[in-house]
Amino acid sequence: MLENVRRERRVRAIAFPQMTLVRPVVIDGVGLHSGNNIHMVLHPAEADRGIVFRRTDLVAGGREVSDIPATFDHVVDTTLSTAIGNAAGTTVSTVEHLMAAFSSLGIDNALVEIDGAEVPVLDGSSEIFIEKIEAAGLEKLDAPRKAIRIVKPVVVEDGAKRAALLPAEGFKLFFEIDFDNEVIGHQEIEADLRDPFFAEDILRARTFCLRHDIEAMWAAGLAKGGSLENAVVVDKHAILNEEGLRYDDEFVRHKMLDAVGDLALSGLPLIGRYEGSRAGHAMNNRVLRALMADRSAWEIVDYAETNRPAVSLRGELTAIPAD
Fold first, then answer.
1. pTM for the full model?
2. Active-site hit among 33, 74, 97, 281
């Protein structure tokens, strides 16, 4: 009992402690691209563990086979979703919506046990993940939270596509899209991940696709689990979902959701500003890799230091061509 009291006092003394879940969260659903039924359990994890995915269908092969750290350098595919993998060739795809939920809730450590190769799509957004995690509760850990502060601009460009990570306080985001479709067209939005309304305003936005792209995705072995229950389908002149859109600009909101999930693979909270223009999973990962490859562009700080004055820029703004 005395030891528990001492531990509680230590946790209270940490201004910004690391976070995990209070108890396991069970999630069942269909994989958007695989169409497989998936059983997933989110478990609490100790401090400094980070987010780790474990393929329970492969645990007999050992941790080298079953476990995948959810970090940018483990991204192995960005075709219509983000997939992570390990040296043994084990993969888990469509991690971005769950990672966006972890990021917005401030969860630093969790073990994700999953019995297949794709995270369930649920309703196509992060909303159900957030609801289930909040119902289980969050727990403070006896360790301070660290963050990656961006101190020099890093930009990746590929034709009309652009993704940038810039110095700023908090974690702010800007995204714009431009589709040759009269329903979507040009949309742009700015948001702050630290805003308490971020989960409601951004993370409820559903994934979407154009109707004329569906057959091509099927031919590529993708979108086998897609339906009007988990995606917004856009025809040339109309939304095919009977209930319509959750927001007039739901499309750009979902692209921002994806960016938050992809950037959560940094492994620590980011302090800075993200800007995306016609960017997708590939560009998000490329700009994160470009940032981490330039050791002069970032520093590790205590999360409590996020209210310090902005760091002055060091070096020149450089556009890095995407390969």
1. 0.89
2. 281
Phi-psi region at 124: left, alpha or beta (left = phi > 0; alpha = psi -120 to 50): left
Question: Taking the CA of residue 239 as centre, how many other CA atoms within 13 Å lie in the half-sphere pointing to its CB?
Answer: 19
Q: What is the DSSP string of 277-295?
A: ES--HHHHHHHHHHHHH-G
How far is residue 54's CA from residue 52's CA, in Å, rounded to a whole number? 7
Where are the strands (E) in the chain, listed by range? 17-21, 25-30, 37-44, 51-55, 67-69, 75-77, 83-85, 91-92, 110-114, 138-144, 146-150, 154-158, 161-166, 171-178, 186-192, 208-210, 232-234, 270-277, 298-302, 319-321
Helix axes 96-105, 250-263, angle to 10 degrees: 80
Q: H helices of 56-126, where?
A: 63-66, 96-105
Residue 100 corresponds to which tokens in the numbers above?
A: 């966006």
pLDDT tens, residue by residue, 227-264: 888 889 999 889 999 999 999 999 999 999 999 999 99
**Which tokens belong to 199?**
């989960």
Catalytic residue check, 281: yes
